[in-house]
Amino acid sequence: MFKKRWMTILVTLIVGLSFCLFMSCKEEAEEPDEPTLTDKVVVYCYTGHSGAAATMCLKAMGYDASNLRFGIMSWTKDEDVRATSPYTETECIGAATETTIEDYPADNDLPDFDSELLGILDDALNSIDPVTYSAITLYDEINGEERSQILSVRSATHYAIGHIPGAENIPWKEVYDADKLTVLKTLEGGINEVARQAAEDYLTQASVPLTITAADLDSLLNDGDEDNDPFVLSVRSATHYAIGHIPGAYNIPWSDLASDTLELKKLPTDRTIVVYCYTGHTGGYAATVLNLLGYTAKNLKWGIMSWTNNADVRASNPFNEDDWGDYEVNTGDTP
After folding, report:
1. Coil, helix or strand for 293?
2. What is the pLDDT of residues 276-305, one digit of tens each?
3. How far is CA 173 from its chain centroid?
4. Are 67 and 172 within 8 A, CB to CB?
5. C-alpha distances in Å from residue 239, one per residue of 90, 105, 309
6. From residue 37, how far is each of 42, 59, 146, 167 by CA, in Å?
7. What is the C-alpha separation between 145 and 330, in angstroms, rounded?
8. pTM of the model
9. What are the extents of the domains in the chain?
């Protein structure tokens, strides 16, 4: 009897252990593999503006970078994670536009930049593909077999509150730092040092120019003091410039900005240049290129959307909550 009882206990233990091992193996088998990382780097910030600056610096240094359209706004509706407000029509000042085709003499000196840098930036501007990355596309990648590398350029604090799953973090003003860039895949051929040095020179300024609001731009242009007027540069297409632009603005399409020094000589080096596009993304690329070359440039926040509510002049749609999802975020200081 005693022996039979122990045999029963032993059989029960064996069966239980076998079942646990079976379930463990089943769970491991069902757990999906992590997607393979591609060479693409998707950069995101808060609204798309500092992300554009970081993307252009990375692109010039040799990374295959694209900027997430509208930043974290297009990924999550969690206000704590967003840490700032998205665009709403209340930010549009409804100012006047004109259709006069402006031109300016090419009589300004160029900034003192490395002769190689202009070609690097021209290549970078014309090889960003896609121009902006969709949150929907990125979400599908994360749940697929391969995905882009993801780089948050928000503050460490806001990264910890919530970030896109798998994202590494380098605050945007530090993307020139080669040591920090080791969180990304190593570049074949290494980082372009000419571009990296230009990025460092720009991003380590005591006050790094980034954006200006439409209200502040309008105030500068209409305060009666011409000495503080910025030079306004549209980087939209020639067609959309002709339909309507900020009064006095000159036009150079954003992808042509670094291709012609004659056009650059029309830009002042002794005044701030305010660059604007459609929603703030390509304007961010263009403003960053100018800053890397040694100009002082600011990007008009939200682009022409914040200046006029004329749909024909806008030629594009502003941020709309209904267009985007509300995806999962990770928390803490690791991807």
Report:
1. helix
2. 999 999 999 999 999 999 999 999 999 999
3. 13
4. no
5. 27, 22, 18
6. 11, 18, 6, 12
7. 20
8. 0.90
9. 36-323
Q: What tens digit of pLDDT does each residue of 158-217 get?
A: 999 999 999 999 999 999 999 999 999 999 999 999 999 999 999 999 888 899 999 999
Q: Which of 312, 281, 311, 304 is nearest to 95 (CA)?
A: 304
Superfamily of domain 36-323: Rhodanese-like domain (3.40.250.10)
C-alpha closest to that of 95 among 312, 320, 310:
310
Helix (H, G, I), strand (E, B) or coil at 81: helix
In angstroms, the CA 2 to CA 43 distance is: 69
- pLDDT category, 8, cuts 50, 70, 90? low
Listing DSSP states for 96-142 in one string gives: --B-------S-SPPP---HHHHHHHHHHHTT-SSSEE-HHHHHHHH
B/e letters for 15-38, b = 16+ CB within 10 Å, e = fewer, are eeeeeeeeeeeeeeeeeeeeeeee
The structure tokens 């006050």 sit at 207
